[in-house]
Specification:
This protein is mainly beta. It has 1 helix and 14 strands, in the order αββββββββββββββ.
Length: 197
């Protein structure tokens, strides 16, 4: 009977112990390395938490230092909460938060009045790093509080387009993201998965 008690405690502990996936990408601009994107996906019993951080440091006419940070949580009902912080040359450029409130969402950005979103959110940009967007036709952009269209344009290749026409292309192999061409607004760049990642 004592063994059964230990077994139950062990099983309960394992249910709350996250599994973790880590991946790293090199950030390139005109084939020159300018930074790193590091992403972590932690799967708990009832939630999945994504953390992405990108650091870019380069000079194009003038110094460009950009830091992107995303922290996004999902449960079985979709997005729970998403935060996105972007700093440009040490100054905050974007501070955005999306929170689920009942069946709707509130989107807060840069201390402005919140916007109400009445659409379900079950796939957002952080998932593109870990999950090929098969059968997905729209992607929630945590930074902007808007939906981008996404479509398959070739085998394992997808084009994401924002409402203002910015395009990103994602290339997958065996369901794993290998490369992406990103229009980051401030700078266009390519991310390539490190070979051992």
């Amino acid at each position: 009977m004592q063994h059964l008690g230990f077994y139950i405690i062990f099983v309960l502990a394992m249910l709350n112990f996250p599994t973790e996936e880590k991946v790293s990408f090199e950030v390139l601009h005109r084939d020159k390395s300018i930074g790193v994107l590091e992403a972590v996906k932690e799967t708990y019993h009832k939630e999945v938490v994504y953390n992405n951080h990108t650091s870019i440091d380069t000079r194009i006419i003038t110094k460009i230092e950009v830091n992107y940070g995303y922290n996004v949580t999902y449960d079985n009902n979709g997005l729970v909460e998403a935060s996105a912080q972007i700093k440009f040359n040490g100054k905050e450029r974007t501070n955005a938060l999306t929170e689920r409130k009942g069946k709707n969402y509130l989107f807060f950005k840069d201390n402005n009045e919140p916007e109400k979103l009445d659409q379900e959110i079950d796939y957002s940009t952080v998932k593109l790093i870990f999950e090929e967007p098969k059968n997905v036709n729209r992607v929630y952009a945590e930074e902007h509080g808007e939906f981008h269209s996404i479509k398959r344009i070739a085998s394992n290749t997808y084009l994401k387009t924002s409402p203002d026409g910015k395009e990103n292309t994602y290339y997958y192999k065996n369901g794993i993201l290998e490369k992406a061409e990103i229009d980051g607004g401030v700078i266009k760049f390519v991310i390539k998965r490190f070979p051992d990642s």
